[in-house]
TrEMBL record:
Its biological purpose: A probable RNA chaperone. Forms a complex with KhpB which binds to cellular RNA and controls its expression. Plays a role in peptidoglycan (PG) homeostasis and cell length regulation.
Provenance organism: Winmispira thermophila (strain ATCC 700085 / DSM 6578 / Z-1203)
Protein name: RNA-binding protein KhpA
Coiled-coil regions, chain positions: none
Protein keywords: Cell shape, Cell wall biogenesis/degradation, Chaperone, Cytoplasm, RNA-binding
NCBIfam families: PRK00468.1 (NF001748)
Subunit structure: Forms a complex with KhpB.
């Protein structure tokens, strides 16, 4: 569920939604989501002073409370 949520949010923010990729890495206590976007769109996903990235992480944390796992979002460039 978290993977689709991140992909949906990222596609709404960027100019090239076709280049959005989200990889899911499952661990015992945590889940890592790797978000990869077009190099020209990285700034749009991070936002000024990281505000958009922080907001996405906050939404992910709220969505992950059902699973009881910690969700980590990594934005790759």
């Amino acid at each position: 569920m978290e993977k689709e949520l991140v992909a949906y949010i990222a596609k709404a923010l960027v100019d090239n939604p076709d280049s959005v990729e989200v990889n899911l890495i499952e661990g015992e206590k945590s889940t890592i989501l790797e978000l990869r976007v077009d190099p020209n769109d990285v700034g749009k996903v991070i936002g000024k002073h990281g505000r958009i990235a922080k907001a996405i992480r906050t939404i992910l944390g709220a969505a992950a409370t059902k699973t009881g796992k910690r969700v980590i979002l990594e934005i790759l460039d």
